[in-house]
Design a protein that fits this description.
This protein is an alpha/beta fold. The chain has 19 helices and 13 strands. The chain has 2 domains: about 1-40 and about 275-360, 3-Layer(aba) Sandwich (Rossmann fold), CATH 3.40.50; about 50-255, Glycerate kinase, domain 2 (Alpha-Beta Complex).
Length: about 350
């Protein structure tokens, strides 16, 4: 059989490349004659630049930017011809904050990545959004590009609270003539019940008691700039980075779509007998542009079965089939706490088990 292995990262444990390798190793234990095609993926979050480099080649350029809490953060931008790819998580990711200081964490470093991409000669910059540890509405990014305000834009949501005037003239001039693309799986607005703070803030370390104040700061930013853009799809991505990019004229594209196009995933699914995908948690959020849903949809277009190997599975069988997934298997069901302690080994074991059911 021809097996396409196309997982996302397993957040906090395995990169998409490590996950693909573990699934392949386990599969070959059971079905050594199968032909495997490994396609590690990303939805715009951590691993985006690495995935695009593997797919497109190009030149990786190392840069150091200001991290979310002020420390130097090493990052890389990928230049392919006149197009540059940057990953916001490298400059303001949750891995850099460790859920600490969420009310002062800034996206300033992402703006520095944009400037580095422009300095490298790019006329189009694709920004992968996801995995951020920030909720500043992208104000730090705007500050790095030259925006000014009556409140500090680079001090996180606490510094932003009460802002009434924002001058974007210099920031827009800095990206004049540059095509910006915001690659994200999130379609939430900036503020409100489904906004960046209320939905994603707790994941970044914000206490429930912090959420009204942080959402209020984002509302202040929207009122001082563009309320319509704040209500747009994806404005709440990466703690509001989607909003800041929208203010600069960026076009939003699903991160999975960008990666699938670069990797030629549709064609690879068309010639597979079975498609295997996965992520850390296969749950209700998987419907909204996440990798497994996107992979399953492509598999379905070519009448290929798709199965999911995840850390946890919290999707019922009816919803699973609505997504185009035949079956889903959980690492924690197989190995309990070992799934976190030895994720590669457990995923390999799970893949070997799944192959007994699907390879023939």
């Amino acid at each position: 059989m021809r097996i396409l292995i196309a997982p996302d990262k397993y957040a906090g444990t395995l990169t998409s490349g490590q996950a693909a390798a573990a699934i392949a190793a386990g599969w070959l234990r059971t079905a050594p004659a199968d032909e495997l095609d490994l396609a590690p993926l990303s939805d715009g979050g951590p691993g985006f630049v690495e995935t695009m480099h593997e797919a497109l080649g190009g030149c990786l350029e190392a840069v150091t930017v200001r991290g979310p809490l002020g420390e130097p953060a090493p990052a890389a931008l990928l230049v392919v011809g006149s197009v540059a790819y940057v990953e916001s998580a490298q400059a303001c990711g949750l891995a850099l904050t460790g859920r600490e200081g969420p009310r002062r964490a800034t996206t300033h470093g992402v703006g520095e990545l944009l400037l580095a991409a422009i300095d490298a000669g790019a006329t189009e910059v694709v920004v992968g959004l996801g995995g951020s540890g920030t909720t500043d509405g992208g104000a730090g990014l705007l500050a790095a590009l030259g925006a000014t305000a009556d409140r500090p834009l680079d001090a996180g949501p606490d510094g932003l609270a009460g802002v009434t005037e924002v001058d974007l003239t210099a920031a827009r001039a800095a990206v004049a003539g540059i095509s910006l693309v915001a690659a994200s799986d999130v379609d939430n607005p900036l503020t409100g019940l489904f906004g960046a703070a209320k939905v994603f803030g707790p994941q970044k370390g914000l206490a429930d008691a912090d959420l009204p104040a942080v959402d209020g700061a984002l509302q202040d930013l929207a009122a001082a700039t563009d309320r319509k853009a704040a209500a747009g799809k994806g404005a709440g991505a990466a703690g509001g980075l989607g909003f800041a990019l929208a203010l600069l004229g960026a076009v939003r594209r699903p991160g999975f779509e960008v990666v699938a196009e670069a990797t030629g995933l549709a064609g690879r699914a068309a010639v597979a007998d079975l498609v295997v995908t996965g992520e850390g948690a296969f749950d209700f959020t998987s419907r909204g542009g996440k990798v497994p849903a996107g992979v399953a949809a492509l598999a379905g277009e070519h009448a290929r079965p798709c199965v999911v190997l995840a850390g946890r599975v919290e999707v019922g069988s009816r919803e699973m089939r609505a997504l185009g997934v035949e079956s889903a298997y959980a690492m924690v069901d197989r190995a309990g706490s070992r799934a976190l302690d030895e994720p590669a080994a457990v995923l390999e074991e799970l893949a070997a088990h799944v192959a007994t059911q699907w390879s023939r």
